[in-house]
Structure formats: structure tokens, C-alpha cells
Specification:
alpha/beta, Aldehyde Dehydrogenase, Chain A, domain 1, Aldehyde Dehydrogenase, Chain A, domain 2, homodimer, 14 helices, 4-stranded antiparallel beta sheet, 6-stranded parallel beta sheet
Chain lengths: 413, 413
């Protein structure tokens, strides 16, 4: 099948999926979880082929050792994956939730109801564990799914897809399609009539490339240039704690601090010293203000005041996560109100910007887009709404002529 | 200023607008409403120039009489506009609403808060009354606005913009920018780093053109191919009422019925007869199933059963509004659940798919997109959310090591 035929198949299967019950979808996910354990020999054998090819590629300098490391599946990883799939199966039904209810007129009741978006395209690199994870999220939320993995994980992805398709079999065939890796991503990104949302899971450059090459909405973020601003009235011990945790807890994360902004009345020396002691290289050059280091490096800028800090964040940030450290509640509230980023924090680490820490259950990704989902996105990022209106034969003509009148009465949901 | 400079100006003014109070924005809108009345001579004089040029264009066959008619402003239209602006001013504050609140851990509280999207680009044709309307919606919701009107309304738009800018003066300068009409739309649609949402207000072909030429999210719909399905168990009088209202109440509307689907056990003759008596041409050719007539015409298809009707709707519809007429509650619920359109109705006219009738206050547009807002969109379609987290110095390290634990306790909003 061509990618277009696969997307069509996912679209039509997704529509059939709407008719499946909560229990049917949950049981399919439970079978998937079981199959990841029961068929682990088959999965690990396929994975071993990718890992072996990866080792050659590393030896020949065609692949980074970090990428090769992310390829490998183990019985432990499969067990964790199975557990994750079971957790998604056990989540409350996301579909058919009534978000608003309103009586428009006597006997005419409107409800806004959560519904699947349609067909998702997930483009992922290296890690084959993404496949069962996102498939579970897509099935739980009633969406069709088109998967495009990296060619370095061809055997693993094929095996995982085969196991998945067999496990979920009573669900409509074609609801999870794996696109063969020789297909170019560009071809998939043209299918804006068939695919409703693209979710890239991979490097910043992959995400940036996808965002700039498609008309399909993209859920994700290319950059995480996060800031911590230490205000004039910060508690310095607290500020040091927050700065070190924000930078050093996991420097490769998108929610790690990249630039430290310090009010001019605060001595930056203790921060520089503490960061250097933690192995962080501190840059004080304007060229660095746009940089996401994703490692033990950061930029430092002394700012005149909070407005200057906010201006810097808007000019150089990526709209991901920004933190103010201050004991001044008025300054804190003004920062929280005026900073135009997905996450804005007072007196805590930037590393809390995460779906699990936010209590969203599964994390679909972190979005810096301004429409649809923003910030850490849980399964609700895979949903849209429909408006359901139930009447008793009402026409609009009597409302236009004044014979009938709208009541517009809010109802309990 | 170039369009890019104007968009930058709107972006920066929009950020300043965040700092304005509810009262400041409401007062600016009240002054705008007053100015539309007080300065009507100036507005009507500018409009007269456009209308005169329009009459020449009509005489020379360069403009349709319908388009020319939509150009004209009158004291009555200005009064209605002023009333609309006052109604928007009086709406509850849309910004800063807490949509969710959760304690993540002791002393660490997360809130999801409504916020402006950023900068909107509104592209409109002909009707100059769009300008103060959308400006009022944008200001109310704290968004920057870039306006691009049609060249046929150049004088009117310039005058309306001048009156608007002077009336709202204490708000940040540049928050509503009017792009000169010699700028090509294509140039604006490239500014995806500066503009967050495009709202086209005009013909289907304008919307379709915009949707296919930009990476910026577009709020709107190109087509409204809406269906009424008369089920085997429909009340026939009720079905006739609904079909006639859906088609004839305002045939040019996007929510008017374009295709009537009739179950094969139902005699279509009374429907054809009633429609023809109402002046409607009824087509029974498959070529018509994709057509939005926007006039007194419709397509008719006899279907085998409800599944066949749903299949037809998914194959030929535009995902706007679909209606089932039936006395069978099981069939009704299945239709409401399975039809994948923005609005799905049981036993009422398709013409209820409208922001005013839905009780949304002002209508921004009707969207057939599946992400962000869907269906009739009120001011909430101009909003996004931010995640605000308030702490007391928390780091994530103790949560990773197990020293600290998340509580994830939902709080009242």
C-alpha cells in the first residue's frame, strides 16, 4: 500500500473505531501489554538485528553511539512498556465526556462532547519503544494512527507492529498503520486531507524540519530555551537551589534552564561559582542567548529589572518554560501574568514542566504552539470536540420571526 | 511600515496589552462604540467614495452587484455595530480564567489559565463592518490584530481604522494594524513566526486559498456541505419541517442543507414536492454530492440504511453540520456518536449551527478544523492557555530520588 492508501485506511478504520466500546478498546490494550511480554523473544530477535547493524554504523562513524544506545530493547524495557500500556488501558474513558451543556430553547439541548481528532501521524527516530506507547494512546483516544519510524529501527518496528496488529485484532483493521521506511517523510507531510495532526518524537532538528514543511498542525516543540530570572528580592539560597536543579538535574531535557537572568542588584558570582562547581560552563556572550545547549552549559545575563528580563525572554526564548525567583509577591504575580510562555513558574524548578509531574497521566509531548494544546500535553491533546444538539423538530424560522425565544440556560454537565 | 514591521508591532503591542486591566480594555471599547456614532459623517463620507467606485465597477462588469451591496455603510449599520461593540465590552473577562487547578505536592500548586493567543490576522472582503467587530473581539481577548481588507473598501477601512486607533488610544499603540491593500495576501501568510492564527472572513474560495497557502493555523471553513438524513422511522411531518427550514430559511448560509438523504423505505416524493413548491431545484445526480449550492438547489440521494447515510456523509460532506430525523432513539444516538462532523443534530434544523443560536455571545466564525476550536466559535477560539505553577523553592531531584512524593490532588477552580 502507498502511504496515501495507508492514511485512507487509518481514516476509515478510525471511523469504525468510534463505534467500539470502552471495554473493547481496553481489552485490546490489555492483550497488547500481554503480547509484549509473551512474544518478547520474537521482539528481541528483531531488535538484535537493528542493534547489530547499528554497531556497524557506529564503528563506521555513520551513527552516534547515543542514537545506537536508544535502539536497544531489553526484557526490562518491554516489561516497563507493558506496564505503561496497561496504565493507559486503565485510564478513564476520554471519549464522550460532556464539556458543556446548554438548553437553547425548550426541548432543544446542546452538548459539547469530547471526540477523537481523526488520524495522527507520529514520526519517530531510533527508540522503537515509542511505537506501542503512542499506539496505546491513539487507540485509547479513538484515533487512527500512521507511524513512521527511523530506518535504523526497521526490524524492531516491523516486529512491534506485527505483534500489535495481532493483539488488537478485533478492533478495526488498519487503525494503526506502519509506513515502510523507504517512504520519504515529505510525502506524508503532503497528506493534509487525510492526516489531522503530526506528532514528531525526536531531535530538535527533526521537529523544526517538520514544522516548516507541512500545513498539518504539529504538536511539539523544536526548542526549549528556558529561563530562570533571579529577581532583586529573591531568597538567594532558594534561587541557588532552583538554578542548579533547573540546569543540572537532566541537562539534555527540553525543560532545563539555558539562560540565567540576574537582576543587577544581585551579585551573580555565587551562581556562576555554584554552576561551575557542578560542571556547568557559563557563557556571558549575547551570541548564546538563542542557544539550547542541552548539556552542562548555560548563558548568563545581568538585567536592569524585571521588565528587562521579560523583554529578554520574549526576544530570545522559545515560549516553553520560564521561572521567577522572588520573595516579592507583586513582582511574582506580574511575571506570571505577563510572560507569554506555555509554562510560567514562581519559586520552583523549570524541570517541573512535564506531563507526569503535572499529573496528566501519559504525556503525548510538550507543545509550544499557541493553538490547540499548549505546554505538557496529556491524552486530551489527542481529542477535539463535537457539538451535539437534540431537539423535537425545532426550526429556526420561529426564532427569527420572534414567535419563539432562546433560553440559553446553562445545564449541569 | 512593511507588513512584517506591522506584525512585529502588533506582537509587541499585544504583549503590552496583557498588562492592561479589564476596565481599561472595556473603556476603550466603549469609546470605540461612541466614536462610531459621533464620527459617522466622516465614516459615511469615506464609505461613499468606495460605494461610488463600486458602482462604476458594477457598471463595467468588474464587480458583482451583491459585493457592491455589502460595501455600503449606513447610520443604521453603524448603530448596530456600536451596539455589538458595547456587547463585547460587557462580556465577562475572558483572560485569566482558571480552567484547572491541581496541587502537585505540598506547597506546589498548578493552574491552567486562559490567555490570549498572540497575534491574529483577519483577512476580509468587501464588508467594512468586519473591522470594528473583529477589533473589538481581539482587544477584549488581549490579542494583537493585523487586518487586511479588500481593495474595494480601501477608503472605508482606512477611516474606520483611524477612528478606532484614536478611540482606543490609551491601549498600546500598534495593537490593531491595518495593512495597506497593495500588500499581497501571500506575503502575510508567510509570517508564521509573527502571526499565530489566520481568520478569513469572505467567500469559500478565499478561505480555500488561504487554507492551502499557509503554515499558520486557519480558523474557518471553506465548505458547508450539510446533510439531513430522513431515517426509516422518521416522523414525516417533522422531517418535512426540518428539511424545508434547513434548506430554505437562508439558502446562502454555510449551515443550510445541501444534500437530503432519504432511507429507501421512505417515499422521497413528498420531500421533492415540498422543496419544489418552495422554489428549490432538486438534483438526483452523483456529480452533485460534493456541491455547496448556497442557493435554492439541493441534491437528493436514497440510501439503503443509516450506515449508508453515514458513509455518504463522510465521503462527500465537509464536516460542518449533519442532521438525523428519526423517532428511533437508538438510531439517533448511534448517528450522534458516529458522525464525525463539527455539529451533529437530532430532530432539529441544521440552521441552529451558529454562534448566536448556540449562546456563545459573539461569533468569531465556524471552524471545520479538528484541532483548536471546532464548530461555531466564540471568543474562546481567540484564547489559549498557560500553565502557572507557584512553589516554595521546590526542586525535582527529591521527587526523583523518592525523598518527596507528588500528591496530584485536584483543587476547586
Amino acid at each position: 500500500m502507498s502511504p496515501t492508501e495507508q492514511a485512507l485506511s487509518a481514516r476509515s478504520a478510525a471511523r469504525a473505531l468510534r463505534a467500539s466500546s470502552t471495554a473493547e478498546r481496553a481489552q485490546a490494550l490489555q492483550r497488547l501489554a500481554a503480547a509484549l511480554i509473551e512474544r518478547q523473544d520474537e521482539l528481541l530477535a528483531a531488535n538484535a538485528a537493528d542493534v547489530a547493524e547499528g554497531q556497524i554504523a557506529v564503528a563506521e562513524g555513520r551513527m552516534s553511539p547515543a542514537l545506537a544506545a536508544r535502539l536497544k530493547l531489553t526484557p526490562g524495557k518491554l516489561a516497563t512498556l507493558a506496564q505503561g500500556v496497561r496504565a493507559i488501558a486503565a485510564m478513564p474513558e476520554p471519549l464522550g465526556r460532556v464539556l458543556a451543556a446548554r438548553e437553547l430553547a425548550e426541548g432543544l439541548v446542546l452538548r459539547q462532547v469530547s471526540s477523537p481528532i481523526g488520524v495522527l501521524l507520529v514520526i519517530f527516530e531510533s527508540r522503537p519503544d515509542v511505537l506501542p506507547q503512542v499506539a496505546a494512546l491513539a487507540l485509547k483516544s479513538g484515533n487512527g494512527l500512521v507511524l513512521k519510524g527511523g530506518k535504523e529501527a526497521t526490524h524492531s518496528n516491523r516486529a512491534l507492529h506485527r505483534v500489535l496488529v495481532e493483539a488488537i485484532a478485533p478492533l478495526p483493521a488498519g487503525c494503526v498503520e506502519l509506513v515502510e521506511t523507504r517512504t520519504q517523510i515529505a510525502e506524508l507531510l503532503e497528506l493534509d486531507q487525510l492526516i489531522d495532526l503530526v506528532i514528531p518524537r525526536g531531535s530538535n532538528s527533526l521537529v523544526r524540519h517538520i514544522q516548516s514543511s507541512t500545513r498539518i498542525p504539529v504538536l511539539g516543540h523544536a526548542d526549549g530555551v528556558c529561563h530562570v530570572y533571579v529577581d532583586a528580592h529573591a531568597d538567594l539560597d532558594r534561587a541557588l537551589d532552583i538554578v542548579l536543579d533547573s540546569k543540572c538535574d537532566y541537562p539534555a531535557a527540553c525543560n532545563a534552564m539555558e539562560t540565567l537572568l540576574v537582576h543587577r542588584s544581585v551579585d551573580p558570582a555565587p551562581f556562576v561559582e555554584a554552576l561551575r562547581r557542578a560542571g556547568v560552563t557559563v557563557h556571558e556572550r549575547p551570541e548564546d542567548w538563542h542557544t539550547e545547549y542541552s548539556g552542562l552549559e548555560c548563558a548568563l545575563r545581568v538585567v536592569d529589572d524585571m521588565d528587562h528580563a521579560i523583554e529578554h525572554i520574549h526576544a530570545y526564548g522559545s515560549g516553553h518554560t520560564e521561572v521567577i525567583v522572588t520573595r516579592d509577591p507583586v513582582a511574582a504575580e506580574r511575571f506570571l501574568e505577563q510572560v507569554d510562555s506555555a509554562c510560567v513558574f514562581h519559586d520552583c524548578s523549570s524541570r517541573f514542566a512535564d506531563g507526569y509531574r503535572f499529573g496528566l497521566g501519559a504525556e503525548v509531548g510538550i507543545s509550544t504552539a499557541r493553538v490547540h494544546a499548549r505546554g505538557p500535553v496529556g491524552i486530551e491533546g489527542l481529542l477535539t470536540t463535537r457539538w451535539i444538539l437534540r431537539g423535537r423538530g425545532q426550526r429556526v424560522a420561529p426564532f427569527s420571526s420572534g414567535e419563539a425565544a432562546f433560553t440559553h440556560r446553562e445545564l449541569e454537565v
